Amino acid sequence: MNPIRVGLLGAGTVGSGTFNVLRRNQEEIQRRAGRGIEITMVADLDTARARALVGDGVLVVADAREVVNHPDIDIVVELIGGYGVARTLVLEAIAAGKHVVTANKALLAVHGTEIFAAAREKGVVVAFEAAVAGGIPIIKALREGLTANRIQWIAGIINGTTNFILSEMRSKGLDFGVVLKEAQALGYAEADPTFDIEGIDAAHKLTLMSAIAFGVPVQFDRAHVEGITALQAADIGYAEHLGYRIKLLGITKRRDDAGGIELRVHPTLVPTKRLIANVEGAMNAVMVQADAVGSTLYYGKGAGSEPTASAVIADLVDITRLHTADPHHRVPHLAFQHDALAATPVLPMEQTVTSFYLRLQVTDQAGVMARIAGILAEHAISIDALLQRPNDGQSGAGTAHTDVIILTHDTVESEMNRAIAQMQALPTVLAPIVRIRKEELS
Fold it and tell me: Which CATH number covers residue 383?
């Protein structure tokens, strides 16, 4: 049987890893796929780099459209990234009747509905295991391994850059800006790290997992997104003292009581006894709670040349196995049949239910705590734990002040917003109140 012929768009970090792993493990991969898989064309603006990677026998071009439109190419692997030209090339490949493998979470989170509809119309597959959590096979787990389950929630550390920064802030007691520079020097953060540190990258990935878990269209524009730029070393230290770690989590929950889905990315306190709280450095982890299997955890490298290539090649093997299969009997892109996707809305953040960590810098005088506790009680917010620590230095005209740290029980976000506004207006509250959400993940 003739090998499957693959066209590779982009010979950078993941592209080179894909070519090298496919070549190194070709015998093992063929035994699993049932036929050979060969990269026969590569498109990259840096043709010299691409030729140095693939050597003789592979056609190298600068124009990606030559690959997309070549009649001998069966599968197009898109590793260019971004929303613009990548969308055009993927849609053109689909229109040409070619299967697509992509690691482009941003593209699918924003344009996935359009792309999956086009693929279904042409009877081709768009595979994207590499788009979420690098080498961790979380898409396959959600789409196939957990298919018997009603998934209740997902919580994931799905951005290695931010996890590295938070790990370093905790272990070294350093502030965000100092650790960011260290991460950039070590290559863990880009020169422009905005997508990572502002939580956008994690939200792209969470959007895809949420769609697969709950059988809904991708809805990135409805996600609540907060990054880690405002986190302070003091709060990481206080959280540790109280038995928690702060992680940037992507969280999506089924809320039957509210008739919707929570879809949110933000810094989160997690109990140190949870396995996910102990995921350090640039590693990723995804925790899934489902009704039949209970809690499962998926851990591994979320980025990098060969870890991501592992996911790309797994998709190539899957497509090779079903290349001649009836399109109506393939695993749907978002796990549920396209005509069975639900119109379940993403809930506004104000309807989210969670508990909170609050840090208030207050004047050190009698009656302050009573007033704060009274405001929380007015909004039916109960206190779980309280810590008071003297704050270094003075505030204002020599006024002594202290840090008050409060952990609350679960409450609706809107009530907490109103309570914080009232507390912030008190003359005894001397600085903006720090608010970080808390999840027990049990």
Answer: 3.30.70.260
